[in-house]
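Why this split exists: single-chain examples teach little about how molecules sit against one another. For that reason, every record in the complexes split bundles all components of an assembly together and asks for one structure covering all of them. Below is a record exactly as it appears in the raw files.
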Amino acid sequence: MSRLSSRARPGHLTRVTLERRLRRLAGLICGLLLCTVLAGCGSSDAGPAGAGSSKATGAAGSPGSASAGADLSGTLTVFAAASLTTTFTDLAKEFETDHPGSKIRLSFAGSSDLVTQISEGAPADVFASADNANMSKLETASLLAAGPTNFASNVLTIAVPPDNPADIGSFKDLGRSGVKVVVCAPQVPCGAAAAKVEQVTGTEVKPVSEESSVTDVLGKVSSGEADAGLVYVTDAKGAGNKVTAIDFPEAATAVNTYPIATVAGSTHKELAAAFIALVTGPAGQRVLLAAGFGKP
Amino acid sequence: MHGAGKAPAAITIPLWIWVVAAAGGLFILLPLAAMVTRVNWPQFVPLITSGPSLTALGLSLRTSAVSTVLCIVLGVPLALVLARGQFPGQRLLRSLVLLPLVLPPVVGGIALLYTFGRRGLLGSSLSVLGIQIAFSTTAVVLAQTFVALPFLVLSLEGSLRSAGTRYESAAATLGAGPGTVLRRVTLPLVLPGLASGAVLAFARSLGEFGATLTFAGSLEGVTRTLPLEIYLQRETDPDTAVALSLVLVVIAVAIVGLTFRRTAPKLLNSGGTRDA
């Protein structure tokens, strides 16, 4: 009996202190959680003001950055639309050769993903969008250092598997029943363009799938799952012999323009201006045209 | 007695472990809390009850239910064979069955595409028979079953192993045939494991995204499940995306709660034999 109680007492004591410690720890965690939540709210309140002030400094600094160019070293982070993967990788290499000491970090994703990331404070210096709508989102949020410059354009084409199983020859053929057509969802730029072409041609396409990105559309065609897909000329060209592109004249009614701009929070504005100059200049245009892009 | 029996087990954990554990817990909870702060509460109900949202939720629940049934039908025999059977290559089979657990779902989607797709291994024969799987709700169910099956097999196999074979041997000695032993002894014994495995499989099916996107496509009411709807809405309507994400989180929390409430007492009971 006495042995039992003497064994139980220290255990009991430790339990009490442990409980006390736990309670203190729980309090600490709650406090931490509250702090973070409050800090989160605070920062989102301060967000527009901070962005506004950095825009002001950006605007003040940009005239100088265009003419200057003495010391172009450092790491430049470029956020670019996924469709620019090949061309921008080439141009970044060219830039690094032209400017020893500079390094370009590239991040490719859907334009709206990149806009979300930049709005949430991702450290981008330059943003190249696949459409004006996404660029305007940053512009209206005062997250650009200067107005965007258009540097390329892209139009839709019909991608079919090499053997063209559904015998597609024109845009109207996509409206035939039984043809498995894959398009982008209207929420994404390539889908908006597809909807516009449908409207202009009066062809009602009943897609078997509305994908979130043009690469998913291309994947469904190159794997032979779909009979046809609406993708950009550059995507079809980039896929090589996996798909055959069937151009159609009505594509000209829905031209996608690609704008590029320096992000307000950039700490390398001169380097950013130099990269944008390369993309919009003759060297950049040569690379872009070779990949199938049109003039802006 | 009762207190002395429990307390020593608790105080063996050093305080710093509690601190790191708290950090680990925060790491999971904080992003969820951060998401809740972004919910547009005044519009929350209209956002989650809009046509496309409800269609996607309905499709997700329906396909996940079918996938769970498929997981049970295929997973129970698989778990039995792995836990009770003895055959060459058993260990290899076990590792391979668990593969979808560690594979990126996109890879699963590509693999399914090359199996059931129009030009796939089985797909080309199926399309001769007039069966088209790609871009159909069937494709969604296949993708979900593929990723969820290991959860059920793993959970059930663990239950089978910890339950042991004593009762089964006893029943067999008393003259029960293999079918009777399975029906009357084995399955009732592992029912909690089967239930939690099924709930986990349902949850995994509900969250399936990568394989569905790669294999099934995305069309409202046919293949666009809730995660795909969230992914798409995020492009233009972040408020809807966040609201629907919260719906998925709530469902997931409910599922986890359900699983633990169901299995925790059973686990304690099986562990109780050691105390006694």
